Amino acid sequence: MNKNAKILIVGDKILPGKGLIAFLQKQGLTNVFSETNTGLDLLSQKSVTAFFLKEQPEYVFLGYIKAGGIAANMKYPADFIYENLEAQNNIIRAAFKNKVKKLLFYGSSCAYPKKCPQPIREEYLLEGALEKTSQPYAISKIAGIEMCRSFRQQYGTDFFSLIPATIYGPGDDFNLENGHVISSLIKRFHEAKIEKKKEIEVWGSGKPRREFIYIDDLCRASVFLMNNDFNINLINVGFGNDISIKKLAYLVKKIVGFKGKIIFNTSKPDGVLRKILDSSKINDIGWKPEFDLERGLKLTYEWYQKENNI
Ligand code: GDP
Hints:
This protein has 11 helices and 13 strands. By secondary structure, the chain is an alpha/beta fold. The chain has a domain of 207 residues: Rossmann fold (3-Layer(aba) Sandwich). A 6-stranded parallel sheet has the order 2-1-3-4-5-10, with helices on both faces. It has a 3-stranded mixed sheet with strand order 11-8-13. Strands 6-9 form a two-stranded parallel ribbon. Helix 6 links the parallel strand 4 and strand 5. Helix 3 runs parallel beside helix 5 and helix 7 packs across helix 9. It starts with 6 loop residues before the first strand and ends with a helix. The protein binds guanosine-5'-diphosphate. The site of guanosine-5'-diphosphate has 22 residues, from helix 4, helix 7 and strand 7.
């Protein structure tokens, strides 16, 4: 992508889209379109078709349209499957018709089977049943991955998919209902600190393990893949280590400076017990993460405080 490349970022209100815009800007790539600066209606084929005809984007980062943590997935299954499918179909079709040079579709680790050998390799996709709480969303992601693969196979288009570990960092969604565990914990620990609460509740048993990737690392990986030709259909991008929710909770407690006790509420769902990606494919072609969890969490908490003037 040269400095004048026309780039479309889909999903600019949440990560990774929101982070990608900031990241590309820092690199001097400013010819960037998104829903917000174009009024693009992703759910309308007419709107998407008109946009592509007029602007002719060369590169498309197809980020998340509707996404969230375990609670949001359980509450809005219809919105999650419908909106993601509709929007990604519209974008992929228009990208094909308008000869987009390269399209990166962001999948999700919940697209992998619930019972998967760990770490999860790209080949395990579609080898088993999904985790029920995120199944509608996961099916939309599998459809997108398969669609990119099929266009590549039938028409030779350069459309490919990336599955990241759970993304966190500046720009994350701090709405408690939608958020993933890191943003939810930062917000709740911060509020508990301010209110000088004696204890705080963390969902589930604390035993599930998750792998997290800091937004800047994911942006770097995404741009690296966009700028090089590896003839890849699907690639994992993870940090390479996971952490239990219990340890994560104690780490957030330390960073935020909450002094009370942590209680694990086992009546809340745990989700899958372990989810760690095998990222050897991207490591082997030359990308490695730079931000460890503690540093990433500190930067995220600083951003959260600045953003909310607290
Ligand atoms: P998942 O990775 O798709 O399961 O989604 P989440 O990020 O929402 O949850 C990851 C794990 O963190 C699950 O085991 C949750 O039960 C646990 N967890 C603990 N406290 C919280 C919280 O306050 N919010 C969220 N979203 N998850 C939490």
